[in-house]
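Hi all, long-time lurker, first post. I run a small reading group and we've been trying to get comfortable going from sequence to structure in the token notation. Rather than ask abstract questions, I figured I'd post a concrete chain and ask someone more experienced to write out its structure so we can walk through it together at our next meeting. Sequence below, copied exactly:
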Amino acid sequence: MGFFKDFKSFLMKGDIVNLATAVVIGGAFNKIVGSAVADIIMPIVGIITGGTDFTQKFIALDGKEYETLAAAQEAGAAVMTYGNLIQAIINFVIVGLFIFIVLKAYEKSQKKEEEAPAPPAGPTQEELLAEIRDLLKKD
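-- Answer (accepted) --
Happy to help. Here is the structure in token form:
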């Protein structure tokens, strides 16, 4: 029974629960970032690059020329799809930029909360004791 009790206490440690929460939120955030990149940013990048689809850029290692990547793969040719690397780099930079912007906005909102004025301080313990002393002297 000691093993299960130890295992339960391990699972319920704050660090483990926080990590599990971060993983779940990270998965959801990944979908948001992926959608922003694929549905908003990449079409703009496509317009800037003249509609180039980097995933179709390749080099056939057998020395032959193929019209498309699909044609080269259908022919069984070994291909280096360098366009996928370029696309992955572009995605990485865009995702990094997107996360940077979100984190900057988060940090800015945290600073505003920290800058909230502190409530007025009440009397110190010494002031309270002096006030009690003065009230006792009046009686």
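A couple of things your group might point at:
The radius of gyration is 31 Å.
The longest helix spans residues 14-48.
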